[in-house]
Every structure is written in C-alpha cells, then in structure tokens.
C-alpha cells in the first residue's frame, strides 16, 4: 500500500471521527472559551445542519465554506472531501462568549429518544425521559427521521426523535 493511500485513509478516518456531534460540540466549546474569532470544522451534512441552527439562533456570527487554510467558497466544489471545511465566526459580548455551553444529551453508549409530546414537555421547561427542561436562551437539536432540526421546529412539524444536544 502506498504512503499516499495510507495518508488519504487516515484523513478520511479523521474526518469521519470528527464529524460526530460530540466532537463538534467539544471543539466549538473549547474555541469559544479560548476567545478565538474564527475556527473551522470538517464539512459533513450533520455539522453543516448543526452550524446552520446555531447561526439562525444567533450563537455564531457567520458560516462560510472553504478549504483548510481559508474561508474561500469559490473552489469548494473542486476540493476532495477531507479538505472541505466549514469556517465559523464566533460571537462575543464584552469578552464573554455568546456560545457559553454545548452539551450532549444522547451519547453513543445511551441514545435518548423523545416522542412529540415528550419533546413538548422538555421545550416548555419540564422534565421528560430523564432530560431536564430547556431553559431561557437554550436551544435543543433533535435528529428526526429525515434530518436534524431545532426542537421547536420538530415539535411544530409533529415529529419526535433522538435528542442530540443543547446549546446556550
């Protein structure tokens, strides 16, 4: 096996391992605590969806597609999958990160699912399926059968699903 092929396999494995929500969650929390203005994460559909939810709710300032060195979307389609990155701009107010906390709800060892009714209870601040209710300024990311959605969007659509993470 050639060295180039082994390096490609390593990059592919590294990208797959980083694409897990727990790695994205840890990375964004560490970057926001170290007060960096920009960071990049590997491009996957789940990472893109989670970052879009964070952007919609004002927890990050911007999101751009690019390569490992710069946020330049012009040549994004020509890049190989391990080179595709999502560049995020983080927000700070008076030196304090807007994205204060990201924590997993469902873990690889224990998946937590909620029906539409249980999701409604969690979103209104009450405890259900061993999950504390969502507080003020907190959002919930839910994996529905089709895609990842914000908790209220899933509830309005009449869907339940796996509770992935909560952010504040």
From TrEMBL:
Source organism superkingdom = Eukaryota
Entry GO CC: ribonucleoprotein complex; ribosome
Molecular function terms from GO: structural constituent of ribosome
For this entry, list what GO says about its biological process.
translation
Q: Which UniProt keywords apply?
A: Ribonucleoprotein, Ribosomal protein
Tell me its family: Belongs to the universal ribosomal protein uS8 family.
Name of the protein described by the UniProt record: Ribosomal protein S8
**Lineage of origin:** Eukaryota, Fungi, Dikarya, Basidiomycota, Agaricomycotina
């Amino acid at each position: 096996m050639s060295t180039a092929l082994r390096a490609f396999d390593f990059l592919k494995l590294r990208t797959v391992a980083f694409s897990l929500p727990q790695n994205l969650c840890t990375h964004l929390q560490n970057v926001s605590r170290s007060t960096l203005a920009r960071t990049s994460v590997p491009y996957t559909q789940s990472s893109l969806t989670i970052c879009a939810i964070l952007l919609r709710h004002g927890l990050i300032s911007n999101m751009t597609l690019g390569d490992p060195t710069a946020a330049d979307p012009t040549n994004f389609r020509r890049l190989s999958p391990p080179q595709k990155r999502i560049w995020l701009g983080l927000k700070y107010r008076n030196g304090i990160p807007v994205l204060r906390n990201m924590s997993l709800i469902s873990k690889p060892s224990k998946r937590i699912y909620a029906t539409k009714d249980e999701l409604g209870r969690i979103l209104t601040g009450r405890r259900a399926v061993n999950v504390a209710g969502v507080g003020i300024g907190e959002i919930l990311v839910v994996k529905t059968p089709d895609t990842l959605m914000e908790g209220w969007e899933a509830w309005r659509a009449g869907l339940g699903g796996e509770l992935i993470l909560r952010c504040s």
